[in-house]
Amino acid sequence: EAFRPEHTVVDGILDLCDTPVGQRSMRELRVRKLRGSDHFAGFHAFEISARGLHIFPRSEVLTAATETPPPEISTRLPMGVPDLDAMMGGGVPAGSTTMLMGASGTGKTILGLSFIAAGAARREPALYFGFYESPDRLVGKAEAVGLPLARYRESGQLELLWRLPLEKLIDKVAEEILAQVRQRGVKRLVLDGLSGFRQTAAMPKRIEGFFTALTQELRLLGVTTVLTVESTSLFGTEINEPLEGVSTLVENLVLLRYVEYRSSIRRMIGILKLRESDYDPSLRELRITPQGIQLGGTFDDAESLLSGIARTGRS
Questions:
Q1: Tens-place pLDDT, residues 164-212
Q2: How far is CA 305 from CA 96, 258, 267, in A?
Q3: I need a surface site. Which of 76, 189, 270, 282 has the fewest CB within 10 A?
Q4: Cα(79)–Cα(229) distance, rounded to whole angstroms?
Q5: What is the CA radius of gyration of the chain?
Q6: What are the Cα distances from residue 173, in Å, to 106, 166, 170, 178?
Q7: Phi, psi of 66, deg, nearest 5
Q8: CA 198, CA 218: separation in Å to the nearest integer?
Q9: Alpha helix (H) residue ranges in the chain
């Protein structure tokens, strides 16, 4: 809007607009002027409901306003899979963020549930947030592999949240997650399905900055976080990053993949990075059993595993 003379005589100017984003529209507020006061610049989403008007400041600007370094924590938290914990030297560093990357069905969700179940067993408050599977379905899936999520949920050690990846405000989702973390004193968090955030975001270009802000806030709160992200290919020689720039925001990166080995399809797991830690770089077979996730051999007689098609020494 062009400058108007009356703008000079008022102490504050607020712009309210209805912004079209593709086929969606989003209500936004901007503080153009607030005399003698600091304020968050730019546009911030808001909604009007039966409970009134609620403003959701951009997560990026909230984090930038503090720029507090996270505390250094030297302890490790087990992932809930003994062989994987051994490969990691005891588990993931407390307060860190771990990304589980793999195709659909490779075991990302089950591994995430193992992580929060291991925390609940140690009386560490845990939270699961996902977009694609309802809490009851998750509990059934977990019980089928020996993870007693129903018991942990009933005792209050674990909360399961589910939101469809539809036309929601991404900053509202972040606010809901952080509110649960603070209210429950959450120490372990699983964000299952990062592509759900991309589907939710009206402006996908914000994703990298949004996750920078969200993961930083979780570190400040002392939360150890596991993120799952679905890769775009089942097999192939390349490992493509599904969400550009997000892998650089995490301290730990674990790859889950299908591999063709001895005329059958196997699941494989490997650690690509682990913050300031020595770790076992072996590629191990991952098996999902009624007793939970178990790791098998290291495919010692095979090569080219990451291509998805292993070649044995006799090939």
A1: 877 678 899 999 999 999 999 999 999 998 888 887 777 778 888 888 8
A2: 28, 9, 11
A3: 282
A4: 17
A5: 22
A6: 26, 11, 5, 9
A7: -105, -50
A8: 19
A9: 59-64, 82-87, 108-121, 135-144, 149-155, 170-184, 194-200, 207-220
Q: CB-based contacts of 205: which residues, under 8 Å, 6+ apart?
A: none
pTM of the model: 0.84
Q: Give the list of residues 6+ apart from residue 216 with CB closer than 8 angstroms, or none.
A: 63, 70
Per-residue pLDDT tens digits for 58-90:
888 887 766 677 777 779 999 999 999 999 999
Q: How far apart are CA 182 and CA 132, in angstroms?
A: 24
**One-letter amino acid of 9:** V
Q: Which of 266, 61, 256 is nearest to 174 (CA)?
A: 61
How many residues are listed for the chain in this entry?
A: 315
The answer to whether 298 and 283 are in contact (CB under 8 A) is: yes
List the structure tokens of 218: 């979780």
**Exposure b/e, 261-277, CB count within 10 A at least 16 = b:** beeeebbbbbbeebeeb
Of 53, 62, 60, 14, the residue nearest 34 (C-alpha): 14
38 token code pair: 């600091």
- 142 phi and psi angles, rounded to 5 deg: -65, -45
The label of the residue with tokens 């992580």 reads 115
Show Cβ contacts of residue 18 under 8 Å, excluding neighbours closer than 6 positions.
25, 26, 27, 28
